[in-house]
Design a protein that fits this description.
By secondary structure, the protein is mainly β. Helix content is about 0%, strand content about 40%.
C-alpha cells in the first residue's frame, strides 16, 4: 500500500492548495510538477510528492461555471475546466476563477491551511461546498472509465479525500450483473478510473489519519449499509480486511468521516430505518456511540466536516450543519433537483471554528 505520508509532525501537505502549475513549470523546490496542484504562499521549502496512481497529472479542482448561495433554495450547474490527467490529482484546491469567498490562510508557523472545502456528489456529479461562505459550486460530471480507458455505465456511491488532497471513490458498475468498484478520481476532468472490483457494497468511505491503522500511513475505510460493518480497503488492488461493526443494531445510514485530532463520525440508523443519528466511532473497537436524539432528517448519505461542524447531505438535496456535541442538524441549503449520494473532506480539515 502506498505511503500517504511517512514521518514527521502533522503539518499540512504541499498539494492541498491553490494553484496548478502548467506542464513543465517548476515548484518552489525547483522540481517539475507536471501540472500537479501545489501549495502557494507557504514558508515551507519542500514539496510533497505522494499520491495514488501516477504522479503525473494535469490541473486541480477545475474551473467551475456557477456558485450557488446558501439559504433555503439554491441551484447550481457547471462543468470542469479543460485538461486531462494520467493520475490522481489533488482535489482540495480552488480554481482561480472560483467565485468562492474562501481563501487559504497562513498560520504563525508559516503552514498554509487548506481552504474550507467539503466535497459532495450525486450519482454522477461532483459539487464543492464552501463551509465558511456556505456556497455550493458544481465542479462537473464524473467520467467513469475502466482499467483500459473504456467507458463505464456507473454511479458514484461515496468518495474520500486523503491528507494530500487525493480523491478516491466507490460505486456501482451497471454490468450484467451489477458489480461494485473502487475508483481513482482525477482532477480537473473528474475521470473516475476503476482500480479494482470490490466484494462489498460500500456506502460510506473515509481515509483514517496516520496512527489509526498504521503508524506511517493513512488507510482507506469503507462502511457497509446492512450490517454496519467497517473494512479497510487497499487502494492499490481493492482487497479488504474486516475491522469491526457499530454494534447495538445500528447500521450505516450513508457515510463516515475521520478527521485528524477529532476522531471519526458516522450517520447511522437502527434497523427500523428512521430517523438518522450522528455517532462517534471508536477506532479501536469500531463501535458506535450515539450522540443526541437524532439529526432531524433521514437518508443522510453524505457526511463532511469543517471547523468543528459536521455537514450532512441527504437524498432530498438538503444540506445540514450538525452540532457534534448534540447531534442535531440545522438545514442550511436545499436544491430539490439534486440527490446527494455521498461526501468527503481532507483528513486535515480544520477542527476549530473561526472567531
Amino acid at each position: 500500500m502506498r505511503a500517504i505520508r511517512s514521518t514527521g509532525p502533522l503539518l499540512l501537505p504541499l498539494c492541498l492548495l491553490v494553484t496548478a502549475c502548467p506542464d513543465g513549470q517548476t515548484t518552489g523546490n525547483g522540481e517539475s510538477d507536471g501540472g500537479r496542484i501545489i501549495l502557494t504562499g507557504s514558508s515551507s521549502s519542500s514539496s510533497s510528492t505522494g499520491g495514488a496512481g501516477s504522479s503525473s497529472s494535469s490541473g486541480g479542482v477545475g474551473s467551475s461555471s456557477s456558485t450557488s448561495s446558501g439559504g433555503t433554495s439554491s441551484s447550481a450547474s457547471g462543468s470542469t475546466g479543460s485538461g486531462s490527467g494520467s493520475g490522481s490529482t489533488s482535489a482540495t484546491a480552488s480554481s482561480s476563477s472560483s467565485a468562492s469567498s474562501t481563501s487559504s490562510s497562513s498560520s504563525s508557523s508559516g503552514v498554509v491551511e487548506p481552504p474550507a472545502y467539503v466535497f459532495a456528489h450525486s450519482q454522477d456529479t461532483l459539487f464543492r461546498l464552501d463551509a465558511e461562505a456556505l456556497t455550493r459550486t458544481t465542479l462537473g460530471q464524473f467520467d467513469f472509465r475502466d482499467e483500459n480507458d473504456g467507458t463505464l455505465d456507473a454511479a458514484m456511491t461515496d468518495l474520500a479525500v486523503d491528507a494530500e488532497g487525493f480523491m478516491f471513490g466507490v460505486g456501482q458498475v451497471y454490468e450484467n450483473p451489477t458489480t461494485y468498484a473502487l475508483f481513482r478520481i482525477e482532477s480537473p476532468t473528474w475521470r473516475a478510473v476503476r482500480i479494482a472490483e470490490l466484494t462489498e457494497n460500500f456506502v460510506g468511505l473515509t481515509f483514517v489519519p496516520i496512527g489509526v491503522l498504521s503508524p506511517t500511513e493513512e488507510r482507506l475505510v469503507g462502511a457497509t449499509r446492512s450490517d454496519g460493518a467497517l473494512y479497510e480497503i487497499d487502494i492499490t488492488d481493492g482487497t479488504t480486511s474486516y475491522l469491526g461493526a457499530y454494534g447495538g443494531g445500528w447500521v450505516t445510514s450513508g457515510d463516515i468521516v475521520a478527521i485528524a485530532n477529532d476522531g471519526m463520525y458516522a450517520t447511522v440508523k437502527d434497523e427500523a430505518e428512521l430517523p438518522d443519528y450522528l455517532a462517534r466511532i471508536d477506532t479501536t473497537t469500531w463501535q458506535a456511540t450515539i450522540i443526541g436524539n437524532g439529526i432531524g432528517t433521514e437518508r443522510t448519505w453524505g457526511l463532511g466536516y469543517w471547523g468543528g461542524t459536521l455537514y450532512a447531505f441527504n437524498r432530498d438535496g438538503k444540506i445540514f450543519a450538525i452540532d457534534r456535541t448534540t447531534g442535531l442538524g440545522s438545514q442550511i441549503q436545499v436544491d430539490a433537483t439534486v440527490e446527494y449520494w455521498g461526501a468527503g473532506v481532507t483528513t486535515l480539515a480544520k477542527t476549530t471554528p473561526d472567531n
